[in-house]
Amino acid sequence: MDQEKNNTHIETESIASVKPNDFEHIPNAAEVEKKLVKILDRRLMIWAFFGYFANGLDRNNMPNAQTTGLSEDLGLVSNQYNWAITMFFIGYIILQIPANYVITKVRPSIMLPTVVFTWGAVVCFMALVTNVQGLYALRVCLGLAEAGFYPGIVFLLGSWYTKEELGTRTAVFVAGSQVSGAFSGLISGAIATGLDGAHGMRGWKWLFIIEGLIAVTIGAVGYFVIPDFPSNTKFITGDLREVAVIRLERQGRSNTKSGLNMQTFRNLFTTPFIYLFTFMFICMQMGMGFLQNFPIILKTIGYKADFANYMMVPIWVWVGIVVIAQGYLSDKYSNRAYHILAGAIYTLIWYIILVAVNGGNVPTVLLFISAYMIPPVFGISPIMMTWANEIYACDTESRALAIAIINSLGNLAPNFINVEVWSIVDSPDYRLGKIVTMGMTAAMIVMCYSAYYMQKNKIMLPKPSQRVGDEEMDKKKTHIVRDDEF
């Protein structure tokens, strides 16, 4: 018994003497860290990519359902169709912030797959609707179900990856949605030509069932592959677990859970970063307007609907490539603000061209060139969320809630603004939309530089609560629990 106490004391002392950035006590620490990152990439990143791929398919499938008979069968008029799209965002905004607080209290390996499985089931049930009221209700349910996914994954990535890794991984995750934009038209086209009328069901019903089952399958796989946190993931044990914890601590990122307290609310609402990032996110979303309305522009100037949709396939693939490249460069050369500023300035130049040339009624060749030049604005999103992960690294709750607030409010406002400034009656010129977006892109540049200046000079940065600080000091004095030691 005395010997056991002595061994425990010696072991505790040895661990207590280890600095957060010191791997010397771990044999082959560099190899262990490489193995850890490979495990995370194979499990978390691949699943997150395909999860967001399914997310993009399911949240944006209304236009495809429209082309395969949805409005005709349900008797939807234009206004009802637009409201069906809006219903999603109502549910999405309502639950997003509380959902990202919940993920700090439960296992992500349970919550996130359940989120994906649930929204897939909701989409499948959409095949059963017979009236607009049922469609509205299920679209709200879809928004509620999807609310926790994007901010939850961004938060989980920030709980594992270092600053040198996080930008690329967040960008790869976000690219899943862009790739879904490329494939959604192909999927709906194949369904329209091959399944419309099969077994007595219209194409839109098959569309909902097939895309819903894709999400259900991905959700089910998630229960077996994705991690929780560095301290409690079952397949990350021993040296792998210790390296996972230490490498984030040495960068000042805390996974300590302190619960909601006054410091959490001060971090969120009395520091300027939450406001700057939210308005930057709104401006970034507005910058996507030209590309989101590009098929409508092509149809208005005389191209057939199928050609307009097929033209979006290579564009969305290109967007995915650009997004990943921007994330990689932000990791390689550091300083997130520089990469956001570069993407915003480049986008602003092209919106100025779109407004200035021929009063907005630009030649067709310039339209296509612009469609391939605008994508850097999409790459701002993952870099911005990576930056938010780093700014709010002080404690778990502040980081989780900040990500959710920025994403939810940042998605909400553009949906109301776009209705007016990117009105379909203004196609193909969309002069008002281009002018407003140009102004908001310029405003994003100013806000980004302001956030960078305040971070560089340590002005009003979020801070850990005293409780969090005390707990982290206690952790450094106690042994890091290793599953292989029980």
Automatic annotation (TrEMBL):
Stretches the record annotates as Disordered: 465-486
Ranges annotated as biased composition (Basic and acidic residues): 468-486
Gene Ontology CC entries for this record: membrane
Gene3D superfamilies assigned to the protein according to its UniProt record, in alphabetical order: MFS general substrate transporter like domains
Subcellular location: Membrane
Segments passing through the bilayer: 81-103, 110-130, 136-158, 170-192, 204-226, 267-287, 307-325, 337-359, 365-388, 400-417, 432-453
Domain of life: Eukaryota
UniProt main location, coarse: membrane
One protein family per Pfam: MFS_1
The Major facilitator superfamily (MFS) profile domain, residue ranges: 44-458
Membrane topology: Multi-pass membrane protein
Keywords noted in UniProt: Membrane, Transmembrane, Transmembrane helix, Transport
GO MF annotation list: transmembrane transporter activity
Name of the protein: Major facilitator superfamily (MFS) profile domain-containing protein
Source organism of this protein record: Thamnidium elegans
